[in-house]
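In this supplementary section we document a worked example of the pipeline. Step one takes a protein sequence of length 438 as its only input; no multiple sequence alignment statistics are reported here. Step two produces a three-dimensional model, which step three serialises into structure tokens for compact storage. The input and output of this example are shown verbatim.
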Amino acid sequence: MAASVGSTTPRAVLAYGAAPHCSPCESGTYWVQTEGHLVRGCITMADIFISYSRDSRALVEKLAANLIRCGYSVWWDTDLVGGGNYRDAILKRLSDAKVVIVVWTLQSVVSEWVISEAERARAQRKLIPIKISSVKPNDIPPPFDVLHTEEFDDFERIMRALTHAGLSGTDKASNQISDAAAAHFANGRQHFWAGKFSLAIEECTKAIELDSRHVEAFIIRGDAYNRLAEFGRAIQDFDAAIRCDDRHPVALERRANAYLALGRADRAIEDCDRSITLNSTHADPYVIRANAHNMMDQFERAIADCDWALQRSPSRPEYNCQADAYVTRAIAQNALRRFHSAVADCARAIELAPMHPNAYATRAIANNSLGHFDKTIADADTAIQLNPRLDLAYHIRGVANSWIGQLDRAATDYRMALQINPSNNAARMELQKLGMPV
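The serialised model returned by step three reads:
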């Protein structure tokens, strides 16, 4: 009798052993996914036996689920072994399995039981070792440390190892997984462009669980983390994308942007250099590298990169990279006291992207240096309307208000800048000059 696959029965898909309300037969009762249903029966041999320590149980459950969805039969859940012959039952299933996957974790590398199972599998020439990322080759006990060992997160390579061992899953099941991963990714991308970053992360995570080498899902999820200012997580996702494809220029460019947000200008430049080497036609990495040069006071280099960017197209057609290039160049022009050039660049950026708050804030800085305080305040007002969390705009408006004698307004602006960004020491110093309390 078949039971429909649904959210109430995922556990049953995963294990050989005693199925609900059934006594285990001698060979083991099992559940396996077939044509969209769970079918119960008895087997004498599983395709795959998974050896692991209990610390990795949750990880192994996901691995088993993915293998079963690819058409393999899997035995892994020792909790479902009944009777007093626990050791003999497990060893029989290991012996009967066509392949043994051993999962090396920091606990399993010192587990006598896991090492024993690995030795038996190696002796029977059916061992496929895999490891989690925190386990280094030197952590793996000999003689297994000299064997080729796949990464736990690299499901595609695990599948190749199974094929090399003579096992092939159900092509239809594999295609279904690919289709499901693509659907989740499409949803995630849609959520991202709608500004629903948490939902984008959820959908991309589902895609990655089904396809551990889905580069675009890692990138979109990393972009979503960037938008949520979770730059460490963003970098982890871009790292994963680059491990899948170390010649992916967009993954390198996005990681550079995350490093820049963390103040790691040196790492941002390294990634941009690599991205540009792989694809010199996109403008985005030039703009990111220009921002990094600005951060390092290398203003002429920043201007040169912006010049290059303005001759190229953005890697994302829907994203106005040219406006960013003009603003970034204007920041460098301000630093070099070329204020009229900065005003011109900001005007061009505003023409391209009228809702660009940094363009107004940067032009406000240039106008303030030129003594155009009314224009400074007007641009700062617009920047604050577009982004009320832009401390730079409050700061420069405070400076302009100081010049025209509006000291109370200036103090209010400096305090707002400090409230938004407590590390804005320039605003703190301006308050001290005014003799105003912070």
